[in-house]
Structure formats: C-alpha cells, structure tokens
Amino acid sequence: MGQHHHGQDPHRHGHQCERGHDHGADHGRHHHTDLDWAELAEYLVGQAELFAPLNRQAAAWLATRQPEPGLVVDVGSGPGVVSCLLAEEFPGARVVALDGSGPLLERARARAEELGLTDRFDTLEAELPDGLSDLDYPADLMWASRSLHHLGDQRAALAAFAERLAPGGTLAIVEGGLPSRFLPRDLGIGRPGLQSRIDAAEDRWFTERMRTSVPGSVPETEDWPGLLTAVGLRDATSRTFLLDLPAPASDAARAYAVSQFQRARGTLADFLDAADLATVDRLLDPDDKASVHHRTDLFVLAAHTVHVARR
C-alpha cells in the first residue's frame, strides 16, 4: 500500500489493530489524496472476505433481533463487501452503503452488480456523522463497523446514528473484541511473547497518536452498551463472534497476516524495542524460512464484538 505519513494513513484503513480497533473505516472523515485507492480497495476487500464467516454469523444474529428491515445502512462501508453480505442476509431490504470515499463506493456498486443486487442497493457518498442527514429515510438497521472510533466526539456521533433510526430500528456497532493472533507465543525467533508486546504498543499508539490526531477528539470510556443507552436507545446488549482459521493458513489468511505485521512495523516503530523490530523484520522477509510467508504454524484467530440497541 505504500508508506504514507500518519494522518493519511493506510493503518486507518482496515488495519485490524491488535486491540480490536480497525484503523480502517475512516473514509467518512478524510479525503486521502495520496492513497492508492485501487491498492487500498484490494486490501480492504481481501480483509472483509476473510472475515465474511464472522460477519455472516453477526448478521444472522441481527436478523433474530430485527427480522425484516426495510432499509439497512452500512455506515463507513468501504468497498461494500459487508454491505453486500447484509443485502444477502436481508433479501427483503434495500441496502445503502454510506462512505466518504467515492472510489471505494464505485467498488461497492461493482460488487453489488456482480452479485445481482443492484435493484435494491444504493451508495451514498457522505462525511460522518453529518452526512447521515443525507439519507432519504430513517434506517431499520444501521451497521457501523469500526467507524465510530475515527470520529472525534463518539457520543455525539452515536446520537446522530440513533437519530437516523426508524422507531423500533436497531443500531449495531462493531467496536472492541480481542487482539488477533497469528503465531504461537514462542515462535522460535526473538523473545517469546512478541504479539502481546505488539498489542501493548498498539494500545499506546491508539491512545497517544490515533485518537489524539482526530479533530475534536473527546475522551470517552469505551462502555459501548452504556453509551448506546446514554443516547436514548434501549435493550443494549453485546455479542462476540469468532474468526478461527487454523494452521496451515490459506493464501488469503497468510496475506492478511503479512499485511498486519507490515502495518505494525510501519505504525509502531516508535513503540517497540529494537529486538522486537528485528524479529518483525525477519517475519516479513520473504527469503527467511522463519517468516510469515513460509511458516506452517501460522493461523488467524480473531474476535469482534457487536453492540446493539433499539430505538
């Protein structure tokens, strides 16, 4: 994806950061003029397709809570992989993919066309959270996956989301979960526990760099059900879904792991010691048999938490 300075930062785009933040879905806020959109879209599509089993489970659970929504809105949709999955899960619904990036919405439209969904699939290019007012109708189901933590005032943004729900409508936000895991604790090179230290570095980066760089950033306790209740929604609850792709890893799982270690190397260099950075460099070296490109013990284990409440 090329190295971009932080602030126009592909780490913000789908980086499944280890504390369960996705530095992705930030398309609602910035126009990243120096990003290679085609490359970014490929990465986001690959990640979303890998996570499709998890998102299908989440969508099936939402269907038990909101069985026949007329309008489903995917807020911060990116290239529309999950938007299309929601369209398949809710065959009677019209689906709107809402995002701040025109190039990614083009991908969403193309995907909907390939899947034969265009008769009930729309896109809306809009900035968050203000762009929600551009929706023609209130939503029966609103899905916001890892877009909220890229907005300065998360409570105000949740209130804006809630305002655009139809009476009885459901808001589902994906935030938190568990750190992703790719390798055993002792991976045979460097000091054992590398991924735990990457998690700790990621936490620091998220707090000290990512959140503080968001315009109008307001500190907020990450009690998502509490916040959903605070903005006037009811019956708030949460459920966590697992992606379990055991070793030996598929090519897609391996590509995802490589991208995560690349992003960790790019984003977290200031937060990891020299020995750990050297280990990450070996993990990324295609000529090194101990790298993630070749390892037989590579897996993907990830957990995403979905918080829901009703208007």
Q: What is the C-alpha radius of gyration, as a whole number of Å?
A: 19 Å
Helix proportion of residues, in percent? Answer: 25-40%
Number of helices: 9
Average pLDDT reading: 89
* Total DSSP E strands: 7
Given the C-alpha coordinates, what overall shape results? globular
Strand order of the largest sheet: 3-2-1-4-5-7-6
Q: Structural class, judged by helices and strands?
A: alpha/beta
Task: Report the uncertain regions.
Answer: 1-33
- What fraction of the residues are assigned to beta strands by DSSP? 15-25%
SSE run = HHEHEHEEHEHHEHHE
In whole angstroms, the N-to-C terminal distance is 40 Å
The biggest sheet amounts to:
7 strands, mixed
What do you see in this structure?
By secondary structure, the protein is α/β, with parallel strands linked by helices. It is 37% helix and 20% strand. The protein has helices at residues 37-50, 52-65, 81-89, 102-114, 154-163, 194-213, 224-230, 251-267, 274-284; strands spanning 71-75, 94-99, 121-125, 139-145, 165-181, 234-245, 300-310. The chain has a 7-stranded mixed sheet with strand order 3-2-1-4-5-7-6, sandwiched between helices. Helix 5 links the parallel strand 4 (139-145) and strand 5. The longest helix has 20 residues, at 194-213. The protein starts with 36 loop residues before the first helix and ends with a strand. Mean pLDDT is 89; it is low at 1-33.
